[in-house]
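Feature request, filed as a ticket because there's no other form

It would be nice if the structure record came with a short human-readable summary line next to the tokens. Right now we just get the raw output. Example of a typical job, pasted below so the devs can see what we mean:
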Amino acid sequence: GCELLLSLTDGGSFFLMDNLHPLCRGTLILMEDRVLHRSVAAQGDYDRYVLHIPMETLKTASTAQTDLLAIFSQNRCVQLDEAATRQLSQLMERCMLQAEGYPVNLRHRDN
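Raw output as currently delivered:
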């Protein structure tokens, strides 16, 4: 499967394969879940959304114009601006509310 991580707070680092990325609000990481990775909070609480997506779901959602498997297989780390961070955070929150009672692997974690 694949994993999407959106950092909601500043402070910490994210190891992705042999690269170290600083974590701050708006850091978005897209990766295959079998890739060696680890987040380390600098101090205190570390809030983020983590979404695990089965490969089959990505295959089904992909189109000729958008190959979602290719996007995740490149193990990307990007920094979103505040508007995009708020928008993605709101989408994640809505997904969590709508998925209540369903077996969905989306969570908002603190600490």
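Something like this underneath would help us a lot:
The radius of gyration is 14 Å.
The chain has a mean pLDDT of 84.
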